[in-house]
């Protein structure tokens, strides 16, 4: 495996993934709707809603990291976000199968659980939230990620693809930590995302680790989150104040332990986050 296509290579995470691929000796190719200045790889302009363009852009790749998407339910109507994200994911998987590309890494989100953008806020069924927790989105973005994972499962059942769906928490770049540190002093600001985040450098290494990990069953979904909450307060205090009704606690949540479990990602990918917001 040498040539890795990165859809959304011009985006926030895409740039870090391309740099990490290059650092590890891969040849990266970016597929995006725009050409980015200074991106250190071949770039192909691709409309992800056009299957022919996706097939043409992926030709010659050994694996795909699919990050092209509208990254939050902001700036577009919900139906536009849903249609864009779902169709783009389907086209990447269809193109990979047609071209004989076996490994696909899909960018998903912990928004699929529904807490982050819920118009009617609700609490987790248990803590920490692992990959078996029900997915209960109330808007088009979270739903698009859930449908993307179901689409991955469908393609994997046909036996031609191995797919890792990476459920990223809030992706934080180093230059954002100053502002985030101020927000961390106000627990209510991050309560709907369960104070979860992942450093963008750790998110990038999760993507590259997923290229070679053994994937049981052909399609897996993994929480990609950091090892601590994004708060100055201990986890137990956050739960007591913001989610006192959650009494089903399934792991040791001492100190600033995270409320999304990343244990399965660590085991499956042989990966762990190393950067912290502090």
Explain what you see:
With 278 residues, the chain is an alpha/beta fold. It has a domain at 3-119 and 130-170 and 200-225 and 262-269: Rossmann fold (3-Layer(aba) Sandwich). 33% of the residues lie in helices and 16% in strands. It is built from 8 helices and 9 strands. The protein has helices at 12-23, 51-58, 78-99, 140-157, 177-183, 200-209, 235-242, 263-269, and strands spanning 3-7, 27-32, 42-45, 63-66, 103-109, 162-168, 170-172, 197-199, 219-224. Strand 5, helix 4 (140-157) and strand 6 form a beta-alpha-beta unit.
Structural class from helices and strands?
A: alpha/beta
Specify the overall morphology. Answer: globular
Q: Unreliable stretches, pLDDT < 50, 5 or more residues?
A: none
What is the CATH C level class of the domain at 3-119 and 130-170 and 200-225 and 262-269, in words? Alpha Beta
Cα separation of the termini: 36 Å
CATH-derived architecture of the domain at 3-119 and 130-170 and 200-225 and 262-269: 3-Layer(aba) Sandwich
Rg result: 18 Å
Mean of all residue-level pLDDT scores: 97
Q: CATH superfamily of the domain at 3-119 and 130-170 and 200-225 and 262-269, called what?
A: NAD(P)-binding Rossmann-like Domain
Strand content: 15-25%
- The CATH topology annotation of the domain at 3-119 and 130-170 and 200-225 and 262-269 reads as Rossmann fold
Helix share of residues? 25-40%
H/E element string?
EHEEHEHEHEEHEHEHH
Largest sheet report: 7 strands, parallel
- Strand runs, count: 9
